[in-house]
Amino acid sequence: MEIERKFTIKKLPDNLEIYPFHHIEQAYLNAMPVVRVRKEDEDYYITYKGSGMMAREEHNLPLTKEAYYHLREKADGKIISKKRYLIPLLHPVFEPDAPTPPADYQLTIELDVFDPPFAPLIMAEVEFGSKEAAEAFVPPAWFDEDVTYRKEYHNSYMALQS
Known about the structure:
Layout: E1 2-9, E2 21-31, E3 34-40, E4 43-49, E5 55-56, E6 58-62, H1 65-72, E7 76-89, E8 93-94, E9 107-114, E10 122-127, H2 131-136, E11 137-138, E12 143-146, H3 155-160
Antiparallel strand pairs: 1-5, 1-10, 1-12, 2-3, 2-7, 3-4, 4-6, 7-9, 8-11, 9-10
């Protein structure tokens, strides 16, 4: 189960270059359910995602490089290319009435900087272990609008728009 929230951002964090990152390319074979192929650095996957906006079923299976490029040719819409920075959020903040997480609890911000034709879009995603944690999460000050429930910010929707 994938449980994540998505946000636009106000500004890039300082020292972005110090964080690890991945180069990601992905193409969509189907929108409902979502079936996509992804190249992440030198790893290749096919992914099935069930319905939902914040929480949904997700399955990843490895692909060979040859299978990825074969399936990519069959994709609909635009191919999405982006650089994903992995930024640790060591002391996440939750709403006051939420259960207190363990002292060592941490999350990772996945900051996606999109290449053309989607540039200058930059979005932050945070994945959670439960719906309750996702709903109680208080985003950092440099996050802007919560776009979790806005379809136009979901990669599958973006890729399939003409």
